[in-house]
Design a protein that fits this description.
The complex is a heterodimer of chains A (about 300) and B (about 375).
Chain A lengths: L1 H31 L6 H22 L1 H4 L1 H28 L8 H22 L4 E2 L8 E4 L2 E4 H23 L1 H11 L1 H6 L4 H27 L1 E2 L3 H16 L4 H22 L4 H15 L14
Antiparallel strand pairs in A: 1-4, 2-3
Chain B lengths: L4 H47 L4 H18 L4 H18 L2 H26 L8 H18 L3 H23 L4 H21 L1 H4 L5 E2 L5 E2 L2 E2 L3 H23 L2 H11 L1 H6 L4 H27 L1 E2 L6 H14 L4 H17 L7 H15 L8 H7 L3
Antiparallel strand pairs in B: 1-4, 2-3
Classes of the chains: A mainly alpha (about 300), B mainly alpha (about 375).
């Protein structure tokens, strides 16, 4: 029972991270119908930025003054820089291809992904980067189950961000424009929505969330490498598909479900096949229920 | 917002400088900003010259070059061009050094792989991202058969082809009704699952260490020991593949595939059996990959899961796309160019994948139809 609960807790933690990344996939897919293969790399950039910015803040002495403030600033800075990367990526690699056949942006996205991986490898080195061990490794026990502060932080931060995103999409003017664009790009454009702006904002938001996820994962595992983006990206994409791609609440639920499934599967069944779980879920979902848990079946357009 | 081109150029260079600052440090950031500024100046200068009409000559030369290449790939001089190339390939082993020969042999394997993927992606329009799975099936089949049962290369070929084909059908059957990018992701998932299984099924596949000590193949009294032997083996394989694929392309099946790619609903309405033909495309593509896998292992004498990662799938896909989807001469050229490009960039060893990624983006932006696009494809890919 304790093992079970422990796996659930671990699953929820990873699930929160998957959910944050999945939101970027699902928002971009909802608006552009593009699988942004480079989204996982944005998360990887975020993880690196966490280490870089926190290192910088340590040098300036801020971490010694107030650790929570330093972490907060690190997350914001990583998010903002990654948002800039996301917007640039869209502008350079996807915008010119908006009218092209669907294969073109997909290949462009894979190109961006390869580019960013190698860019980080060249500038930051090919070896593992270590997150500065300044966060206290404290934990609380709940009836024999250990929950670390970082885990609690990750889950709470993710919920806050998801609530914020939900508010943004449902209650603001830009959010309404995003929903309109997702429904019908052309029509939204005709009634005065600035489509280019909406798409940029979508990439900015998605990249910000992925960057925060990256920083938190760097804190959680303590190690970062330039190739972590691919696997995390694929798993988050699985989460998005699981929830119903293009569906924002679906991505959140999909993230948690996948995190828990993976954690239980690795804990009880075959630990060495941990990374295969996401792919098996992905393949099964797409074959059995391609619309996902919450998605609606869209008829093929002729 | 910023209409003034000078201000815009400065802003762009500052933007990129700021982007790389946290990763690469202040020196690289300044260098990059300077480079971007210089680059935009050069582009602006070229644009101004273009407006002044200086490039009409260049344009004309480009058109002329295009039609000359067209003459060789599609036109009356095709037979001449083909026989010259074949003759050159036949004398290559007697003039080239080992390094060149090795590159040529490996290019041949990639040509077969790319042509196989071209059937699925280029002709039938089914985006498959896990193509290396079939390659792996062929490679492991031969490695296992030869090391455990002592089966010869020639007897392994049909077995590997059939197994890979079955694998293709298994993958194809449940995924047929999926749309473009969903299909891409499912096949990617299959490819990754295959690799993870190969990596973990230690008792059969040797896990991450792979299988080594695959015996040298032989043909009658001749045992394949030298690079020349493998070269001719792969050359024969590549030539046969090109021939088969070319014949298929001009057949009823090939035309049906293209019809499916262009408009599946319309094709079905015209009586094309889309299910059967899509499965056939999957199976044939897989068979070619399986055969390529056998030759790969025969040449290396060794196989491990490392060779079958996602990047490999992407590179093969890029060969098809870069060469020109659906165009056989294009795909052959794409395979050779893409395999040799990293070799040519050896001096920039660390930068080559960076350049590769950037080239993929640029290619999609400026020449999406590939180096040698097909005329049939032209309409969709927006040529001209």
């Amino acid at each position: 029972m304790e093992l079970f609960l422990q796996q659930i807790i671990n699953g929820i933690t990873v699930g929160a991270v998957y959910a944050l990344i999945a939101l970027g996939y699902t928002m971009v897919y909802g608006i552009l119908e593009l699988i942004n293969f480079a989204h996982g790399e944005i998360y990887m950039l975020g993880a690196y930025l966490g280490i870089i910015v926190l290192g910088f803040l340590t040098v300036t002495g801020l971490t010694a003054v107030s650790l929570p403030l330093a972490i907060f600033l690190t997350i914001i800075a990583a998010g903002v820089i990654c948002a800039a990367y996301g917007a640039t990526m869209e502008k350079v690699a996807y915008r010119p291809l908006r009218e092209a056949p669907r294969l073109a942006p997909l290949i462009s996205a894979m190109g961006v992904s390869i580019f960013l991986q190698n860019y980080v490898m060249l500038t930051q080195g090919a070896t593992d980067k270590v997150f500065p061990p300044i966060i206290p490794k404290k934990s609380v026990m709940f009836s024999g189950v250990e929950v670390t502060y970082i885990q609690i932080f990750i889950v709470i931060a993710s919920f806050v961000l998801m609530a914020g995103l939900h508010f943004f999409i449902m209650r603001t003017r830009m959010g309404r424009a995003m929903r309109a664009t997702a429904l019908d790009k052309k029509m939204a454009g005709l009634v005065g929505v600035n489509i280019d702006m909406v798409i940029s904002v979508t990439f900015v938001l998605g990249s910000f969330l992925a960057a925060v996820a990256g920083v938190m994962v760097a804190m959680y595992y303590g190690l970062v490498n330039f190739y972590i983006g691919y696997l995390a990206g694929m798993k988050a994409f699985t989460a998005a598909v699981l929830g119903g791609i293009g569906n924002v609440p679906g991505a959140m639920i999909g993230g948690f479900v996948l995190g828990i499934l993976e954690s239980l599967g690795a804990g009880y069944l075959w630990p060495e096949y941990k990374d295969a779980f996401a792919f098996i879920v992905l393949v099964l979902i797409l074959i059995i229920r391609p619309q996902g848990l919450l998605g609606e079946r869209t008829p093929d357009k002729v | 917002m910023f209409k003034n081109p000078y201000i815009k150029a400065v802003l762009i260079s500052v933007w990129f400088g700021l982007l790389v600052l946290p990763f690469a440090g202040i020196r690289t950031a300044l260098l990059l900003a300077g480079a971007v500024l210089a680059g935009s100046a050069v582009i602006a200068a070229f644009k101004a010259l273009g407006r002044a009409g200086l490039f009409t000559g260049v344009k004309r030369a480009e058109v002329l070059l295009g039609s000359t290449i067209e003459g060789f790939t599609h036109g009356p001089r095709k037979a001449v061009a083909l026989s010259v190339i074949l003759a050159l390939l036949l004398v290559l082993p007697f003039t080239a050094n080992r390094y060149t020969l090795d590159l040529a042999t490996q290019s041949g394997i990639y040509i077969v792989l790319a042509l196989g993927l071209n059937i699925v992606v280029g002709q039938t329009g089914l985006l498959v991202l896990g193509y290396v799975a079939f390659y792996a099936v062929g490679a492991y089949t031969y490695a296992l058969l030869s090391t455990h049962l002592g089966v010869s290369l020639w007897a392994s070929l049909p077995v590997a082809a059939i197994l890979a084909g079955i694998f293709g059908l298994l993958l194809g059957a449940p995924t047929l009704r999926l749309r473009g990018d969903y299909l891409a992701v499912v096949t990617l998932g299959f490819g990754e699952i295959t690799r993870i299984v190969l990596n973990n099924w230690d008792s059969l596949t040797g896990g991450p260490n792979g299988i080594s000590g695959v015996p040298r193949p032989s043909a009658g009294p001749l045992i394949f020991t030298s690079l020349e032997h493998y070269y001719f083996l792969v050359l024969a394989m590549a030539v046969v593949t090109v021939f088969v694929v070319q014949r298929l392309n001009n057949s009823r099946i090939g035309r049906a595939w293209i019809a499916i790619r262009e408009d599946e609903v319309a094709a079905e309405a015209m009586g094309v059996n889309t299910t059967m033909l899509k499965l056939l495309a999957f199976a044939l593509g897989a068979v070619l990959a399986g055969l390529a896998g056998v030759f790969y292992v025969a040449k290396m004498g060794f196989v491990s899961p490392e060779s079958f990662n996602f990047l490999e799938s992407v590179i093969i896909l890029c060969m098809v796309v870069l060469g020109g989807m659906g165009s056989i001469p294009g795909v052959v050229l794409g395979a050779v160019v893409l395999y040799l490009m990293p070799e040519a960039l050896r001096d920039f060893q660390q930068y080559r994948m960076l350049i590769f990624g950037a080239a993929m983006v640029m290619m999609m932006r400026f020449r999406p139809q590939g180096l040698i696009g097909t005329k049939r494809r032209g309409i969709e890919m927006g040529a001209e």
